[in-house]
Amino acid sequence: MIWLAWRQFRAQAAVGAGTLLVVIVVGITSRWRLDGLYASSGIAHCAARGDCAAKTSSFLNQVNGSLLNHLPLLLGTVLVAVPAVISMFWGAPVISSELDTGTYRLAWTQSVTRSRWLSLKLGLVGFGGLGVAAAFSWTVTWSADPIDQMSLGRILPATFSERGIVPVGYAAFGVAFAVAAGTLIRRPIATMGVTLAVLTAAEVVARWIRPHLMSPVRTLLPISPGDISGIGIHMLRSGTGVLNLTGTVSTAGRWVLANQIVNAAHQPVNGIPLSATGPLSVQSCALSRALSCLPYVAQHGYQELVTYQPASRFWDLQVRETAIFLGLALALTVFSFWRIRRLS
Asked: Would you list the DSSP string of 204-266?
């Protein structure tokens, strides 16, 4: 039975191993190139001269300006599709093709129990898929580390699912769902389509719930011209008005979830009331000099409330999100064993 299961899976395994070997070679050579670029940039000794910002910007510009330097980030983009590919082409056919053709009946008449039959197939495909996803993700995470250290952006949604252990969780869930769906649908092509749709939806939902896996940090900051990305005045017929400010802060090292202007009671406001006359008025805050009103805005107790997840929580969020998908994968696996015992 083990030999038969391997024979059925060896083509996918060969393709996966060959692809992974290419990825590892590209990742290693890319990391060597980035290490040389980092060493020549002088970033390691910039603190004493106080020019780290300029050197970091130059380093990132060189990364973005060269395809070879940009390869780790491109590998990360490819990694997003890896769990879906493994789930569709490895997980979906493993049971559905057997049920579709009826060959499962032969195995069940050869003193092989249904549970053992499913265990061998699911174990071979599941662990093989998780191994590929883990190795691919480790290669991307390691090769892109110099870039992540400079940009401090790996906790951001666009990068988070391309690093760490989360891709392994996605792959585990995808394979487990594909197998479970195959026991119900019994058609490989249909199972592949449903698996792709569900896994895509699951990753979208994961991005939505991720900010809530840990209570975000909330910080009050004084309003300053450098933190304002938008400003406008809405005039009212009474001669008064409303000052509308759009706050912004540097995202380096943190994932900003919300940026609000709050009053002295720390309540979010849609706009700051302007009187007809006085320091904080329509006249003194005319659009051409609206930024001059910011000191008076601060005197009235208005501040920026920034809600964010700090970069230090990257691995905590990785572990929690991965645990959710592994738990779902375990539940789907249990369902598959329950379902396979009831097939005729």
From this structure: HHHHHHGGGSSPPEEEEE---GGGEEEEEEEE-TTS-EEEEEEE----TTEEEEEEEEE-TTS
